[in-house]
Amino acid sequence: ATPTALLVGSLRGSRLGVVIAGAEVLEHARGVDTILLDKTGTVTTGQMRVVDVTVAGESSAGLGAVDRGDPGASGGATVHPTHEQRTADLLRLAATAESASEHPIARAIAAATDERGVLGHFENLPGHGIRAEVDGHTVEVGRNATHGGNRLDYEKQSRHDPRTTVTVSVDGTFAGTIVVADTVKPTSAAAVRALKDLGLRPILLTGDHEASAQAVAASVGIDAVVAGVRPEGKVAEVTRLQATGRRVAMVGDGVNDAPALAQADLGIAMGTGTDAAIEASDLTLMRGDLLLAVDAVRLSRRTLRTIK
Ligand code: ADP
Ligand code: MG
């Protein structure tokens, strides 16, 4: 390879909004035939918002919906907390617990209320959620198979407004669910089409539930989905594809994507992503726009043609 040609390629890359870790990475892109796309923050904006809160034993609170009132509160004879109080309590506990996490779901929940309790010990449960002490209680927020996350998710699913349901438990007891909505980025569908035109097979790879993964995949035109995988499961998927003779590119933004980005033949980080993802990758896209990943693949092919 002629270093000059590679350098021209990388300079062109920087003008396009792609930062290349070293000129040799363009060679890694040679023969890439499969592209794994992380869902949250890569195909979607990852700027989530809380759209529903359900307290255990009650029906949906429907945030932003018309207030249905609470019959128990009107007479003043009852000491039971009102529906609104129970919802506010659940949100306060969850928001306090999540205030120490950088995850998009955590940010959405933390932004849903200004009320805060006293936060004690906090721990991340990778690929699952978080656990924290709040006001002396153990609060867990995360994915929960036992409360039918998939089913709940599916009922409320919408294509362009993909939703994820998380479970809140307090001292080991199911306390309620919180639904957050994400948004598919406006250019993601066009990028997937262009990647297919370049001969790449796109696969959506996510730690999220199958239902929200399928909704996003359908909205951008991806027909292969690998859902519910932890960070090590993402690496295993890259390795599995490589073992079948495929050359794998991967695009991601999260800490949970970093090991898979490092394992991929061509790791591509969203510039909007975490440092861990950027450090593990060969290329960084300056804007959080998947069309830049298409440019990067095209660029590497053009550069290689110049060299030959
Ligand atoms: P992705 O692969 O889509 O970026 P993650 O691996 O980060 O997803 O998370 C997988 C799932 O774990 C989320 O869909 C959610 O159900 C749960 N989860 C992760 N982090 C949190 C958190 N801080 N709060 C609540 N749930 C979380
Ligand atoms: Mg992500």
From TrEMBL:
Coiled coil: none
The family this protein is said to belong to: Belongs to the cation transport ATPase (P-type) (TC 3.A.3) family. Type IB subfamily.
Subcellular location: Cell membrane
Protein name, as recorded: Cation-transporting P-type ATPase B
